[in-house]
Fold each of these.
Amino acid sequence: MVSIISRRSFIKATCCSVAALGAMNRFGLINALASSSSYRALVCVFLFGGNDGNQLIVPLDSRYTDYSTVRGSLAIAQGSLLPITTLDSTPYGLHPNLPEIQTLYSSGQVAFVANVGPLVEPTTRTQYRTNTVSIPENLYSHQDQQNENQNGSRSSLLTTTGWGGRVADLLQPTGATYPVSTSVAGNTLFLTGVSTSPATIIPGGSLALSGSNGTAGANARDTALQQLLSFDSGLSMVQASNTVTQNGLNINKTLTSAFAGATPLTTVFPSTGLGKQLQQIAQIIQVRDTLGATNQIFFASLGGFDTHSDQLNEQDPLLTILSQALNAFYNATVELGVADSITTFTQSDFARTCQPNTNGGTDHAWGNHQMVIGGAVKGGDLYGTFPTLELSGPDDAVDRGIWIPTTSVEQYGATLASWLGVSSTDLPTIFPDLKNFTQQNLGFV
């Protein structure tokens, strides 16, 4: 009998290079909705640290003066902003480092959703300041607000699953060999479901165990590992670990086989971390039929947005990375013939104070502007209500340009989930506070 100590050491040594240890737990509550001809996928790009949406999109009408006054040293010169217009001809400007997004917006593949954030119910400045309305817990905290955005809930304390994971619970086909959800950015709450878990892939990493090269020695090691994983130790934690490891190996095997028959994409991706993540997602989408996928949900991320100081030098290059990577990914979906079937969207912890601090940076805020990209997006427009850019104005929570959201994360997520195929009767189980909002579908896709 193999001892627990030697067994653990063996598993640690052999599993360190497994690229996909995301477990496929108890698959599926219902079958997928349709055949591959109706394939659809959501791609979440999470901007960790709190992206300053006040720099993302700026009014170019008379409100630019308000923006410039409040932003002070961080104000982008009006002539440097990249001009766009909404369908009602309202002029806005995009950050100068978003030229690819400007082009996609102008051709109708990008929409902006204004002032999105966690809410329990519609909230005004007066209600917030007099404590006469329920508000989300632990506002302005990175971890809590990351959780609440990924969970689609007002409470980070009750967060155990993400809204993407709860959608995957509904859409996971019974008996599938590959899960609906995949993260290319490590473990993520967003894709954690009640009955499903994501595959977790390291972009560009090997999908095989180190040393599994087909030689006699390697085959013997692989056989020994399988014997260890199938051994019934009678210990529940060990058995659970074995299941996770075995599922990871199965995912690796499935992906390796699927990729072997795929033609390399011609779309050139930037060699940034986000570029590599989105390239990996495009490669998985390319083999969707081989995987038997009819719906998929992906998670990618870009960090570094906690710009408490020197924001102009910190955020600007990040927006270049974001714009170039999103553009390459959209081009890849065109190359694959699935541009209308893929919708990419951004999320972030929160926005930043519109009023800068004394270090040339900004501090934690609340409502934020988000982007949605794809062939099915009703683009070239801005959805939701843009905040009044006035300190202590009607949308300012604490007199520093902290915008109280006018669109909830649940409304934002429900619109995306509905497009993916979640029925209206299932939406309340995914977004429990959605019932508090009159408009449950924002119509941007």
Note: The CA atoms of residues 84 and 238 lie 57 Å apart.
Amino acid sequence: MGSKDKAKHRTAFRGSLVALITPMRRGRVEEEALARLVEWHVTCGTSGIVACGTTGESPTLTHEEHVRVIDVCVEAAAGRVPVMVGTGSNATAEAVALTRHAAEAGAAAALVVTPYYNKPGPAGLIAHYEAVSAAAPDLPLYIYNIPGRSVIDMDVATMAELARRPNIVGVKDASCDPLRVTRQRLACGEDFVQLSGEDATTLGFMAAGGHGCISVSANVAPRQCAAFHKACLDGDFALAREWHERLLPLHDALFMESSPGPVKYAVARLGLAAAEIRLPLRLPQRATRAAVTEAMRNLSLSR
């Protein structure tokens, strides 16, 4: 994958990309509901599907479930929107195996989180991502930098080194650092795709040169999130600011407790999936449910 391929890939994942929940019922992944959610997002204008991430409860999925969620999402999307799948792990061998499966399943890209708990330094991070990259050389890879959950915060110099690898094409940045997108743009180049991983800060992220957001709120308000991103990509930041202000109460409510508890409650209110989440997380408490309900009501959200 050369520089021209990287430039072309920048158009594959941009705008409103949903960090898709994994619907469950009676302790099992509900594949039919998962396929229906993908179909709903296609019809609502979501630009791409991102499965098996934090919002998809990847830490509690078995390896077999993880593989099956990848397959279901790719099959349901049927090429109408690109599908990126989480394949990261704190064990490099597992990340390699999941990434190889993503490539074989026909995913458009893999999202590889910085290894959590182990706390590797820059040399370890480079070796980890090089191993994953070499395992699926034709599959575009995105670094998932989320220091709030993984503890590791990949510095710009390390990311720039990895960006030199042909198939490491971008980052999902959940650092919430307002200067990071500019520094990464300068260090990694304009063709390095930068996707926000935090809904509430995406307006500034896009204004600084970001390409889109892997969004939790898009699970609940896909049309509204798509309209916000269209305004950003059109350069109409006055309209984008209006959408941002309308969506902000929802962004805030969905993170009053650990995600994806609140967003699973919200999706259940839309009648799209059961209100079920795996331990050690729980569905939200009454105050959070009330805030989510109010935010949804103010956006006139319904299926």
Note: The chain has a mean pLDDT of 95.
Amino acid sequence: MTIGVPKEIKDGENRVGITPAGVLTLVQRGHTVLVEAGAGQASGIEDRQYQAAGARVLPQAADVWSGADLVVKVKEPLAPEFPLMKPGLVLFTYLHLASSLPLTRSLLERQVVAIGYETVQTDAGALPLLVPMSEVAGKLSVQLGARYLEATWGGRGLLLGGVPGVPPADVVILGAGVVGINAAKVAMGLGAHVTILDINHDRLRYLDDIMHGNVITVFSNPLTVERSVGYADLLIGAVLVPGARAPKLVTAQMVHQMRPGSVIVDVAVDQGGCIATIRPTSHSQPIYLVDGVIHYGVPNIPAAVPRTATYALTNATLPYLVELADLGPEQAARENPQLARGVNLACGRVAHPAVAETFGLPLEPWPTAAG
């Protein structure tokens, strides 16, 4: 199979879909890898490193897309890339389709087999290709929040961990998944006063155990969310429903009651966000104000640390990519239920229940028994 690796074009997206080690693995298995010139530069990977691993480096994105049977990316295709997708192409990337009807329609019209990293799921419900980027985003969310709490950026002028005699900032985290736990670890390590909310008692018990009581755990419901948001200096949205839009847990009225100069970082913005006043921003223009509250809505947070993020991502995706290349998408999906759950769209059909429900489209599981 021929695998294509185009350069990412999303604002501030510095990651790349594969490392030279990943290229070498595929080439040694008899596959061809096409890499767009400069695709890895922002991650500290030079074209010559890809060439040394056996890749062909091509000058234009169109050359990569047209020559590939399977395209591996980091972020979802943007409008300029839509015409480059050909029927039968296998696309392996973060998709987050529930937040974009235009992308969903384009992939359906072009008969693409679209497999989302964020919906590849184990029998136990884990999301192995989302975990590494969730770890990065969770840790970065606190660093970002600490920065924007500084008066220089319009924040309340708070040091997250305080100093002796002056209390620390209050960090409130909505969701005790991978993002939430990593955010809590960093916030606690910096000395902040941390509250984390979730609807899963087991997750809250686990957090209470590993944090040794240093993080306050609260069962999430509208009343506890409202109360917690009211005293938050830094509010982190870390809610995830696999493949679906994030539920709006924080209303505009709750945001209105926050103190001016407080900060919101909604990591769930790539799935629509869990805060009513959030909208997607970009690395070049990351923040905006609502009622004096700083909102950070960048949907590709890990792109700020591309070298760490690119290598962490390839470590997780490569085994699945090898299966797709070796077996083809249909056979790979039949043999690996985790990959089958990752198929969002295929050959003009909606194959993922959450995507079908979000847009009111018919669900047609793929591959079918007859192919």
Note: The mean pLDDT is 95.
Amino acid sequence: MSGWLGIVLLSAVVGAALLLSVNARKLLWSPVLAAVVLGMAGYAWQGRPDLPAARAKPIAAERGAAKALIKMRSDMDQNFGQAKSWLNLADGFAREGNYGAAAGIIQGGIRQHPQNADLWSALGLVLMLAADGEMTPPAQLAFDKARKLAPQLPAPDYFEGLAFLFQRKPIEALKMWNKVLDRATPNAKWRAPLESQYLGLQQMLLQSAASSAKQDHVIEK
């Protein structure tokens, strides 16, 4: 979990150009912009075209990005009071990278409030963070439980879309995020950041496709 590069991307367009020029097999992170997750995830699907596919490990070492993900999940919570004290404590540990302690606290909350979707959603994210961004079976089970308890809760679909990005499946990520945006209320705190990520990913795909088409044209000549 070492050797990762933290970079502030000034825009999705700049990010796309940067992705096309980076040679090292590293991930790009931006803890500053609202579209931090998109910036860090872009290279997970872009990668180097001359190398065989390899599982990306995008999360745990960059605390700034992990904090951004935790905030996004918190903004997506339904905020039913009974879970808040558990989540506040667990999030503190998770922000410091202590995902084991965070998971233990959340599981304690779930034992007392097994029907609380926010707790199940938080558990799913912590398990993703602990697995370097991979949607492991336990993380999937936690998100599925949250989705069953609260079908309109955006976090499970949002993080599943993020997992698609880490698997280099940007189209599937866009589809998942579009579902989330379709049911967003106008005043949802997470709506604007997700819209930025969604539009930024679209821009990255367009930039990548245009670059590939240009390279193909040069080769044909």
Note: The chain has ten helices and two strands.
